[in-house]
């Protein structure tokens, strides 16, 4: 089992504090969902776990080890993968090149998202928003990471592709943490740990069943 957590985490953007002592934990294999409106701190919490924003207080703990001062590239080497909401692919490279950077044999990613097959020679920057999300998630699937952090995974996707995306994430043998504005319909009947953030604090922690009742 893999666990990753924030412990009394604080993050500041200049004079503004975005996380006010947030404590949350995710375990895998399994799915954890961070809910909240824009400005709630859900995306910041993901970035704090990945190390792409520094903490001004508190700690990030991964499998019992404090990794607060471990840089993001080293966390990636150890098996942590972040798929941010924006700029998640290399726009100047083709779809094939984006996939090849992660794994020369990228057939499994194309099995997951066959819509990418006819786009392999297109530059990623020319794809639609939904197509770029599919490419970014394909890279995450190929990485075989132990911790997968995804900000709004289904943004720009059709309902059918979005449902497929949540199935893929839920099936990963990894600790998967996703950030969403609201609980997606595809996850309402799935076992998952849910945290709701509001203005940088956790206001709910529990299972999906508790949230939907």
The averaged pLDDT comes out at 94
Structural class of the secondary elements? alpha/beta
Proportion of residues in β-strands: 25-35%
Radius of gyration: 17 Å
Low-pLDDT windows of residues: none
Give the helices and strands as they follow along the chain: EEEHEEHEHHHEHEEEH
Report the biggest beta sheet as strand number plus sense, adding barrel if it closes: 6 strands, mixed
| Number of DSSP E strands | 10
Measured between the Cα atoms of the first and last residue, the distance is 29 Å
Shape: globular
Q: Largest beta sheet: what is the strand line-up?
A: 6-7-8-3-9-10
Number of helices: 7
How is this structure best summarized?
The chain has 213 residues and is an alpha/beta fold.
Structure commentary:
The chain is of the alpha/beta class and 213 residues long. The protein contains 7 helices and 10 strands. It has helices at 42-50, 72-77, 95-102, 107-112, 129-143, 159-171, 208-212; strands at 2-13, 16-28, 30-35, 57-62, 65-66, 80-83, 147-151, 175-180, 193-198, 201-207. The strands form 2 sheets. It has a 6-stranded mixed β-sheet, sandwiched between helices. It has a 4-stranded antiparallel β-sheet with strand order 2-1-4-5, with helices on one face. The radius of gyration is 17 Å and the shape is globular. 38% of the residues are buried. The model has no long low-confidence stretch (mean pLDDT 94).
